[in-house]
Design brief:
The complex is a heterodimer of chains A (375) and B (312).
Chain A (H helix, E strand, L loop, with lengths): L1 H4 L10 H11 L1 H21 L22 H14 L3 H9 L1 H10 L1 H9 L2 H6 L1 H19 L18 H37 L1 H15 L3 H12 L4 H11 L2 H14 L3 H8 L4 H38 L10 H13 L4 H28 L5
Helix pairs in contact in A: 2-18, 3-10, 3-18, 5-6, 10-11, 10-13, 10-14, 10-16, 10-17, 10-18, 12-13, 14-16, 15-16, 16-17, 16-18, 17-18
Chain B lengths: L1 H29 L3 H6 L5 H11 L5 H14 L12 H36 L4 H15 L2 H15 L12 H8 L1 H27 L2 H8 L4 H38 L5 H10 L3 H29 L7
Helix pairs in contact in B: 1-4, 1-13, 5-9, 5-11, 5-13, 6-9, 7-9, 7-11, 9-11, 10-11, 11-12, 11-13, 12-13
The chains are: A mainly alpha (375), B mainly alpha (312).
Chain lengths: 375, 312
C-alpha cells in the first residue's frame, strides 16, 4: 500500500531481495515459520549469553518430578505403580536416585545422632566422618536438601531433578548452534569449490569432481563415524568440523551447475571486457546472482545437520558428556521411558520437531519467494 | 552395452583410489599411532614397539599405503583389534542380518510410497491430498530416534506384540519375529518423505500433453496412471531409491543398535566405540565400492525403464 502512494517515477525498480521479501510477506505459512525459527535463534542467543537457562544444571525438583499438569495424577500414580507391579517399581526408583538419595539419607541422621547423643567427646571418636558431615550439613543440608525441591515442575524434571524446560533450552542452544555453524562451514566449502569448478572448468573441474565423487561414494554417516573414531576427542568444534567437512557435496554440485550456466552470460563477458579479474568475476559479479541458491541450500543443511548432531550425540559420538543437547537428552529419555517417565522425551522431541518443521517450511517459502518461476 | 559397463568400471578406479587415500589419510595420519590405542593404559615401550612392528606402522608412509592397498586387493584386512576375529569373517556373518532388515524396508517402503503418491496425486488439491501431505510433513519432522524409542517401548514393552530385541537362528524366525518391528519402524520413518517426493514426480508427469492424449483416445484412468504416468515418473524414483540406499544404512545403524541385531551397522558403532580401526576401514572401503556399483546399476536401470536414455 505504501508503495502505491509513493510516486512511481522516482522509485527504482525493486531488486531481487525486495521482491522476494514482498512475496515472502504474502506467504503466511512462511512468515509464521520465520517467526518460529527467529524465536528459536533468539532463545539460542539468550541461552548462550546467559540470560536464559543459566542454571539449568541446578537440581530444583524432585528426581523425576512430573510435569505440573499431570501433577496430581502422577503423585497418585507413583503410589499406585508400586502396588500393581509389586516392589519392582519401588526398587527401580530407589536404584535410580541411588547416588544422591541413599548417601544423603545415610548422612543426614548420623550427625544429628552424633550431636544430640553425646556431643564432642563421642564426636571426637568419629572425627573424620563428623567433620565431613558437618560440612555437608552446612552446605548441602541447607541448600540442596533443605531447599524444598518442587514436587512438580511445569515440564517435569529429569533423573537428577533438573528442570526439563531449562534443559531443553540449553540443549537447543547446543543443537541449533552446531547446525548453524556446520551449515556455514559446509556452505562456504561447497560455494568456493563449486565456484572454482564451474568457472574454471578443465582440470580444476576434473579435480573437484573427483573429490566430490570420493566423498559421495562413502555414505554420509559412515564417513562421520569414521572421522569420529579417528579424532577421539569430543567437543563442539570437532562435531561442527566433522559435519561441515563432510556435508559440502550437495551444495558444491548445485553451485557448480549455476556457475557453468552463468559464466557465459553477457554480464560476465562485460565484466571480462572491463578487465575484472577471475576472482572478481566469480565472487563479485556471479556470486550475488547465485546467492539465492546458496541461502536455500544453507537453510536446508541447517535442518540436516541438526538431525545429524542429534543422532551423533545420541550414539555418544557427538557433544561431550557435560554438554547437554537434544541428542543427549533423547539418550537419557530412552532409559527413562521404560520407567514411565515420558516427559523429557516428549519435551525434547517436540522442541526438535517444531524447529525442524518450521525450518523446512521456511526453506520452502524461501525457495518460492526467491525463485517465483519454480512452482 | 558391455563397452559402457567396462568403461564405467574403469572410471571407478580413480574414485576408489581417492577413497583409499582419504581413509589412509584419516586413519594412518590424523589417527595418530594406533599402538597407543591398542596397548591401552598398561603400555610399556617394549609392548608398543612390538605392536607397531606387527601393524607395520614403523614403516614409512608409502609402505603402509602399499600394505593397505594389498589388504584391499586380497580382501584380507587382518583381524579385529578388540575381538581378534578376522575382519572378512565379521563382514560375512553380519551381512545376513543387515539384509534381513534392509531389503524388506526398501521394497515395502518404495511400493507403499508409490501407491500412496499415485493416489494423492490423482486427487491433488483435495482434502485427502492436503491431509496426507500435512501428515507427511509432521511425520518427517519428528526425529527418527523418537520413532524408534517410542515404537520399541509401546509395541514391544507395553503391548508385547514383538520381542524387545534379539536375533534367532533360522531365517524365517528372524524375518517374521525379530525383524518385524524394526522393519515396521523403518517403514514408518521412510514412507512420509518418499511419498512427498514421489507425489511431486508424479505431478510433474500428470500435466503433460501425452497424458491428455492418452485420455483423449479413451485409455482408462487406471491405465493412464499406472502405465503412462508411472512409467515416466519411474526415472526420478529410481534415482531416489538408489541415492537412498546408502542412507538406509544410517537408519540401520540405529535400528540394529536398538534391537541388538548383529548386523553391519551395529558392528560399525561397536568398532567406533572400541577404536577398532581395521573394521571401520574395511567397512568404509566395502560400502564405498557397493555405492559405486549401485550407481552403475541405477544408470543401467534408466535404460531399461526409458529406452530414450542413451548410455555414453
Amino acid at each position: 500500500m505504501t508503495t502505491m502512494t509513493a510516486s512511481p517515477h522516482f522509485v527504482a525498480s525493486p531488486g531481487l531481495w525486495t521482491l522476494a521479501w514482498r512475496r515472502m510477506r504474502r506467504d503466511h505459512v512462511g512468515m509464521v515459520s520465520l517467526l518460529i525459527v527467529a524465536a528459536f535463534i533468539l532463545m539460542m542467543i539468550a541461552s548462550g549469553s546467559g540470560f536464559l537457562a543459566r542454571d539449568w544444571s541446578k537440581e530444583v525438583g524432585a528426581n523425576y518430578a512430573p510435569p505440573t499438569f499431570v501433577g496430581a495424577d502422577a503423585s497418585g500414580q507413583s503410589v499406585i505403580i508400586p502396588a500393581t507391579e509389586a516392589g519392582e517399581g519401588d526398587v527401580v526408583e530407589s536404584n535410580v536416585s541411588d547416588p544422591i538419595a541413599s548417601e544423603l539419607a545415610e548422612l543426614r541422621p548420623k550427625p544429628k545422632g552424633a550431636v544430640a547423643g553425646a556431643g564432642p567427646s563421642e564426636g571426637a571418636v568419629v572425627d573424620p566422618l563428623a567433620d565431613i558431615m558437618a560440612e555437608i550439613k552446612g552446605k548441602g543440608g541447607t541448600e540442596a536438601v533443605k531447599e524444598q525441591r518442587a514436587a512438580t515442575l511445569p515440564f517435569g524434571a529429569d533423573k537428577w531433578g533438573r528442570d526439563v524446560l531449562q534443559k531443553v533450552i540449553k540443549g537447543s542452544e547446543t543443537s541449533i548452534f552446531v547446525g548453524l555453524a556446520a551449515a556455514l562451514v559446509a556452505t562456504l566449502l561447497g560455494t568456493v569449490f563449486g565456484a572454482f569448478s564451474g568457472y574454471y572448468g578443465k582440470w580444476v573441474d576434473d579435480f573437484f569432481n573427483w573429490f566430490y565423487s570420493v566423498f559421495t561414494s562413502i555414505p554420509y554417516l559412515l564417513l562421520i563415524l569414521a572421522i569420529a573414531a579417528v579424532l577421539q576427542q569430543k567437543g563442539l568444534t570437532t562435531i561442527i568440523l566433522i559435519l561441515g567437512l563432510t556435508g559440502w557435496t550437495g551444495i558444491y554440485r548445485l553451485i557448480r551447475a549455476e556457475y557453468l550456466k552463468h559464466k557465459s552470460r553477457e554480464y560476465v563477458q562485460a565484466a571480462d571486457a572491463i578487465g575484472a579479474s577471475g576472482n572478481r568475476r566469480m565472487f563479485v559479479h556471479i556470486l550475488p546472482n547465485v546467492s539465492h541458491v546458496i541461502l536455500v541450500q544453507m537453510s536446508l543443511h541447517v535442518v540436516q545437520f541438526i538431525k545429524a548432531e542429534v543422532i551423533l550425540s545420541f550414539l555418544g559420538f557427538g557433544v561431550p558428556v557435560d554438554v547437554v543437547s537434544w541428542g543427549s537428552m533423547l539418550n537419557e529419555a530412552q532409559n527413562e521411558l521404560i520407567l514411565g517417565k515420558w516427559w523429557q522425551l516428549v519435551v525434547a522431541g517436540t522442541a526438535m520437531a517444531v524447529l525442524v518443521t518450521a525450518f523446512s517450511m521456511l526453506t520452502d517459502s524461501l525457495r518460492d519467494a526467491l525463485d517465483p518461476k519454480l512452482k | 552395452m558391455s563397452a559402457y559397463i567396462i568403461r564405467r568400471v574403469w572410471q571407478m578406479v580413480p574414485t576408489l583410489l581417492g577413497v583409499v587415500l582419504l581413509i589412509f589419510f584419516l586413519f594412518n595420519w590424523i589417527g595418530g599411532d594406533p599402538a597407543y590405542v591398542l596397548a591401552g593404559k598398561i603400555s610399556n615401550p617394549e609392548q608398543i614397539e612390538n605392536i607397531r612392528r606387527q601393524l607395520g606402522v614403523d614403516q614409512p608412509y608409502w609402505k603402509q599405503l602399499l600394505i593397505f592397498l594389498q589388504q584391499i586387493l586380497t580382501g584380507d584386512f587382518g583381524a579385529s583389534w578388540s575381538t581378534n576375529e578376522k575382519v572378512s569373517q565379521i563382514f560375512l556373518t553380519r551381512l545376513g542380518p543387515s539384509l534381513t532388515v534392509l531389503v524388506p524396508i526398501l521394497v515395502l517402503e518404495t511400493l507403499i510410497a508409490i501407491v500412496i503418491a499415485l493416489g494423492v496425486a490423482y486427487v491433488r488439491g483435495s482434502l485427502t491430498d492436503r491431509l496426507v501431505m500435512v501428515a507427511c510433513t509432521v511425520g518427517m519432522s519428528i526425529s527418527l530416534l523418537v520413532y524408534i524409542i517410542v515404537g520399541q517401548y509401546v509395541f514391544a514393552y507395553k503391548l508385547g506384540w514383538f520381542p524387545v530385541q534379539g536375533w534367532g537362528e533360522s531365517v524365517s524366525e528372524n524375518l517374521f519375529v525379530y525383524a518385524a518391528l524394526p522393519v515396521l519402524l523403518g517403514l514408518l520413518v521412510g514412507i512420509a518423505p518418499n511419498t512427498r517426493l514421489y507425489r511431486t514426480f508424479i505431478l510433474d508427469e500428470i500435466n503433460q500433453d501425452y497424458v491428455r492424449t492418452a485420455r483423449a483416445k479413451g485409455v482408462s484412468e487406471n491405465r493412464t496412471m499406472l502405465v503412462h504416468v508411472l512409467r515416466n515418473a519411474l526415472i526420478p524414483i529410481i534415482t531416489n531409491v538408489m541415492a537412498y540406499l546408502p542412507g538406509l544404512l544410517v537408519g540401520a545403524f540405529l535400528l540394529e543398535r536398538f534391537f541388538s541385531i548383529p548386523g553391519i551397522g551395529r558392528e560399525v558403532i561397536l568398532a567406533v566405540e572400541r577404536s577398532d580401526f581395521p573394521v571401520i576401514k574395511a567397512v568404509t572401503i566395502y560400502v564405498a565400492m557397493a555405492t559405486m556399483v549401485i550407481n552403475l546399476l541405477a544408470d543401467l536401470m534408466y535404460k531399461a525403464v526409458d529406452p530414450r536414455v542413451v548410455l555414453k
